[in-house]
C-alpha cells in the first residue's frame, strides 16, 4: 500500500528505454548543432554561439544550468522536512534578476568580453584576473563532480541503476555535445532538459493528487503538518531559514551565482543585442519561479503521502536525498516508463549543469591562460584546442565524482565552499564597478580577508552543525508504517543528525552556537561586505587609484539602470559599438589602462 513503508518497485524495461532515449536525445542535439555549424568554427562561435542567441532559449538555459540533479532531488526533500519557506526564494530570484540585468549585463555586454574575469584585469591587474580564474576553475571542477555523483548515488540505491556506469555515461554524453557543438549545443540541450525536469515534477504532483484526492487535500495536509508556516520574521541571523535570511542573504547569494559566474555570464553575453540579454534574465526569473514552485509542491505532495510513515525514520531510505526517488518508485512504479521519466528529469538537471560547467571552464582557460601566451594560433588549432579542453575537463569532472564517492559527509562541506567563494568575488567586482578610488592592492587584500573569513565560518559550521532550534526541522512520524524496522517513534531532526560531523569527544565550543551557527545563506553577504570594506580601507591607506583618467566603460553608468524604456535607442548604439569593437579590440579601452593592446586584439578577434 502506498505511503506505509517497506520495499518499493524497481526499474522496468520501459523505464530504461525512456531514460536511454532522453540521454540519447540530449546527445543528438549536440551532434545536430555540430553538423549545422561545421562551417562556423571560430572561437566566438564555439564559446559564445557567435553572439547571435535570442532571449528565450538563453533564459531556459540560465534556469536549467543551476537546476541540477541536486536541486531536483534536494528541494522537494527540503520542503518535506522543513516546510515551504524555500518558496520565499522566489523574491530572491526577482531581486537577483533585476540587479544582474540592470547593473552587470550592460557593463559586461559593452566590454564584449568572453571570460567574466577579463574585467578583473581591465579594472585591477592581470594577477588578480588569474587568481579569480583559478578560484573559479577549482570550485567548478569540484562542484561539477559532486553534481554528477550525488544524484547518481541517491538514484542508484533506489532504482538499482549501476552507479559507476551512470557516472561515466553522464560525463561522456556531456563531453560529446560540448566538444562538438559548443555553446549553441549546450543552450539548446538545456532547453530540452528543462522541459524534461518540469515534466518530472508534474508527474509526481499529478499522481500524488490522484492518490490523496486532489490538490486541496495535499494543501490541507501540509497546513496541518506545519509545512505552510513559511513566513518567520525573526531577525536572528543564526536561524537557518527566515524571511530576512532568504530575502537578504539569499538575494546576494544568487546575485553572486548569476552575475559573475562564467557559466551564466557566457550565456547572456551570447545574446545578439543588449535587449535580448536583459530579457533573458527576466524570462529566466519566471522560469526559476515555476521550477521552485513545482519542486516545493512536490515536497508537500510527499509529506501528504508520508505524513504517517516517514521513510527516513522507518529505515526505508538512508539519506534525505533518496526521499523523492523512493516516492517516485512507490507511487509511479505501476506505470511503465514514468519512473524512467523522473530519473531522466534528475539526470537532465545533472547534464545541464555539467555541460554548462565544461563549456565555461573551456572559455576561461582559453581566454585567461592560453591566448595571452600563444598569440598566433590558427582557427583550426583553436577549434581542436576547444574540443580537446572539453574532453579534458569532462574527464576531470568524472574524476572528481570518483573523489566525491570517498568524501562521505564532507560532500556538504564541499558544496558549501562553492557558495563561500562567490561572495568575496562578488565584493571584488562591486568594489571595481562602484568605487573609482579602489586599487589592485585593496582589491586583492580585501578578497583574501573575505575568503578566509567565509571559509572559517562555513567549515566551522560543518564541523559543528547548528542545533535543531536554529534549523527548525518539522515533526515526522512512523506511527502509520506497516513495515517498521524499529519501534514507532516521532523524530524532529532526521536531516540534521544524518548531516552532522561530530568530534570523537562530542566537544562543542561556545563559538559553535554563535559564529559557526550563522545561516549558510548569509555567507555570500558576509564575504561581499568584508571584501568591499577592507578593500576600500586598504586602497585608501595605499594611496587609492593612481590613474587620473579612468575609462567610464569599466564602471556602472546611470543609463545602465534604465530597463527597457530606451532599449531601441540604446540597441542601435550598442550594435554599432559592438561591431566596431569586435573588428578592432573587442573592448572600449583607452591607452590609460595598463593592458597590452596586442593581447586584447588577439583575444577578441578570435
UniProtKB/TrEMBL annotation:
GO cellular component, one term: plasma membrane
Keyword Signal attached: no
Recorded topology in the membrane: Multi-pass membrane protein
Stated name of the protein: Solute carrier family 5 member 8, like
Main location: membrane
NCBIfam families: sss
One matching Pfam family: SSF
Gene name as annotated: slc5a8l
Gene Ontology MF: a single term: organic acid:sodium symporter activity
Single GO biological process annotation from the record: propanoate transmembrane transport
Subcellular location: Cell membrane
Key words of the record: Cell membrane, Ion transport, Membrane, Sodium, Sodium transport, Transmembrane, Transmembrane helix, Transport
Recorded family membership: Belongs to the sodium:solute symporter (SSF) (TC 2.A.21) family.
InterPro entries for the chain: Na/Glc_symporter_sf, Na/solute_symporter, Sodium:Solute_Symporter_SSF
TM spans (from-to): 16-35, 55-74, 86-109, 130-151, 163-183, 195-215, 242-260, 281-306, 384-404, 410-431, 443-464, 520-541
Domain of life: Eukaryota
Amino acid at each position: 500500500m502506498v505511503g506505509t513503508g517497506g520495499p518499493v518497485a524497481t526499474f522496468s524495461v520501459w523505464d530504461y528505454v525512456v531514460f536511454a532515449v532522453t540521454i540519447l536525445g540530449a546527445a543528438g542535439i549536440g551532434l545536430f548543432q555540430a553538423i549545422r555549424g561545421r562551417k562556423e568554427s571560430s572561437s566566438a562561435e564555439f564559446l559564445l554561439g557567435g553572439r547571435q542567441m535570442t532571449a528565450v532559449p538563453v533564459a531556459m538555459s540560465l534556469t536549467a544550468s543551476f537546476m541540477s540533479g541536486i536541486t531536483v532531488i534536494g528541494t522537494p526533500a527540503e520542503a518535506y522536512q522543513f516546510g515551504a519557506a524555500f518558496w520565499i526564494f522566489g523574491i530572491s530570484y526577482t531581486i537577483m534578476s533585476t540587479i544582474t540585468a540592470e547593473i552587470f549585463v550592460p557593463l559586461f555586454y559593452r566590454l564584449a568580453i568572453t571570460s567574466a574575469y577579463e574585467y578583473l584585469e581591465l579594472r585591477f591587474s592581470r594577477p588578480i584576473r588569474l587568481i579569480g580564474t583559478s578560484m573559479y576553475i577549482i570550485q567548478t571542477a569540484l562542484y561539477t563532480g559532486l553534481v554528477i555523483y550525488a544524484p547518481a548515488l541517491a538514484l542508484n540505491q533506489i532504482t538499482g541503476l549501476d552507479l559507476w556506469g551512470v557516472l561515466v555515461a553522464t560525463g561522456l554524453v556531456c563531453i560529446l555535445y560540448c566538444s562538438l557543438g559548443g555553446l549553441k549545443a549546450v543552450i539548446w540541450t538545456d532547453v530540452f532538459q528543462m522541459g524534461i525536469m518540469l515534466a518530472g515534477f508534474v508527474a509526481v504532483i499529478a499522481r500524488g493528487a490522484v492518490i490523496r484526492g486532489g490538490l486541496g487535500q495535499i494543501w490541507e495536509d501540509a497546513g496541518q503538518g506545519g509545512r505552510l508556516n513559511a513566513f518567520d520574521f525573526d531577525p536572528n541571523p543564526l536561524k537557518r531559514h527566515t524571511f530576512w535570511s532568504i530575502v537578504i542573504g539569499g538575494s546576494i547569494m544568487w546575485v553572486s551565482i548569476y552575475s559573475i559566474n562564467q557559466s551564466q555570464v557566457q550565456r547572456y553575453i551570447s545574446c545578439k543585442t543588449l535587449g535580448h540579454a536583459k530579457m533573458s534574465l527576466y524570462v529566466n526569473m519566471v522560469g526559476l519561479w515555476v521550477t521552485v514552485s513545482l519542486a516545493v509542491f512536490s515536497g508537500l505532495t510527499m509529506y501528504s503521502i508520508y505524513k504517517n510513515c516517514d521513510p527516513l525514520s522507518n529505515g526505508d531510505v538512508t539519506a534525505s536525498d533518496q526521499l523523492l526517488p523512493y516516492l517516485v518508485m512507490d507511487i509511479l512504479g505501476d506505470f511503465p516508463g514514468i519512473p524512467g521519466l523522473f530519473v531522466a528529469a534528475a539526470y537532465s538537471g545533472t547534464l545541464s549543469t555539467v555541460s554548462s560547467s565544461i563549456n565555461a571552464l573551456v572559455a576561461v582557460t582559453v581566454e585567461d591562460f592560453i591566448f595571452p601566451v600563444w598569440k598566433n594560433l590558427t582557427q583550426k588549432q583553436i577549434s581542436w584546442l576547444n574540443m580537446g579542453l572539453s574532453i579534458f575537463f569532462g574527464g576531470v569532472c568524472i574524476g572528481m565524482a570518483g573523489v566525491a564517492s570517498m568524501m562521505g559527509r564532507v560532500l556538504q562541506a564541499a558544496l558549501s565552499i562553492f557558495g563561500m567563494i562567490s561572495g568575496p568575488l562578488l565584493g571584488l567586482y562591486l568594489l571595481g564597478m562602484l568605487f573609482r578610488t579602489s586599487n589592485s592592492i585593496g582589491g586583492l587584500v580585501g578578497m583574501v580577508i573575505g575568503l578566509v573569513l567565509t571559509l572559517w565560518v562555513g567549515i566551522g559550521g560543518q564541523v559543528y552543525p547548528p542545533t535543531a532550534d536554529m534549523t527548525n526541522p518539522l515533526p515526522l512520524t512512523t506511527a502509520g508504517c506497516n513495515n517498521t524496522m524499529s519501534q514507532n517513534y516521532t523524530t524532529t531532526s532526521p536531516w540534521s543528525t544524518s548531516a552532522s560531523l561530530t568530534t570523537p569527544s562530542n566537544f562543542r565550543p561556545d563559538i559553535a552556537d554563535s559564529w559557526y551557527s550563522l545561516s549558510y545563506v548569509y555567507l555570500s553577504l558576509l564575504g561581499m561586505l568584508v571584501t568591499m570594506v577592507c578593500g576600500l580601507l586598504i586602497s585608501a591607506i595605499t594611496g587609492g587609484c593612481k590613474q587620473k583618467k579612468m575609462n567610464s566603460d569599466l564602471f556602472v553608468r546611470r543609463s545602465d539602470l534604465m530597463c527597457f524604456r530606451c532599449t531601441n535607442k540604446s540597441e542601435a548604439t550598442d550594435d554599432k559599438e559592438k561591431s566596431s569593437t569586435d573588428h578592432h579590440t573587442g573592448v572600449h579601452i583607452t591607452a590609460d589602462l595598463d593592458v597590452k593592446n596586442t593581447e586584447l586584439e588577439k583575444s577578441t578577434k578570435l
